[in-house]
Amino acid sequence: MEEALKAERRGSVPVGAVVVNRDQVVSMAGNEVMRIHDPTAHAEILAIRRACLALKSPLLDGFDIYVTLEPCTMCAQAISLARIRRLYFGAYETKYGAVEHGPRIFNFAIHKTEVIGGIRETQCGQILHDFFDRKRKFITHCHNIPLSATESRK
Ligand SMILES: [Zn+2]
């Protein structure tokens, strides 16, 4: 959740991920899509990359990953490719989620990661809700400024 909040401060959608091996944190990351202009820079991908780099191995056999939001298709597939043992996620994502929704990646993946969803669901969901709420209010605020007000300053 801390990583999610850091992602928000960087202007990205607040999602955080932590890779854990026997209660030991191996890596953590927050969404960096906006900061590094990379559509694949989701928290899960970055956390997996960092863990693999630290271990000098493409596999995270027996490792677990904690994510604040249900992973998307790309991340669920990456979790399976890394052979992560168990995925714990917070909020459910009905639109882009690919674990309990949509393509349900682990039903078809060769390595079937165990899934435990809804961990601190309310708190994880609230971070996202607040982020989008602020964004909406900001956009509405900008659209409500009459054009004449900006033109008259010329
Ligand atoms: Zn993703």
Please explain how this structure is put together.
- Helix content is 38%, strand content 19%.
- The chain has 154 residues and is of the alpha/beta class.
- The protein has 5 helices and 5 strands.
- The protein binds zinc ion.
- Zinc ion binds at residues 42, 44, 71-72, 74-75.
Structural class: alpha/beta
Helix content percent band: 25-40%
SSE sequence, one letter per element: HEEHEHEEHH
| Strands in their spatial order, largest beta sheet | 2-1-3-4-5
User: Strand percentage, roughly?
Assistant: 15-25%
Radius of gyration: 18 Å
Number of helices: 5
What's the N-to-C terminus distance? 45 Å
Shape: globular
Ligand identities:
zinc ion
Assembly state here?
A: single chain
- Spans of 5+ residues with little confidence (pLDDT < 50)? 150-154
What is the residue-averaged pLDDT? 90
- Per DSSP E runs of 2 or more residues, the count of β-strands stands at 5
Largest sheet: 5 strands, mixed
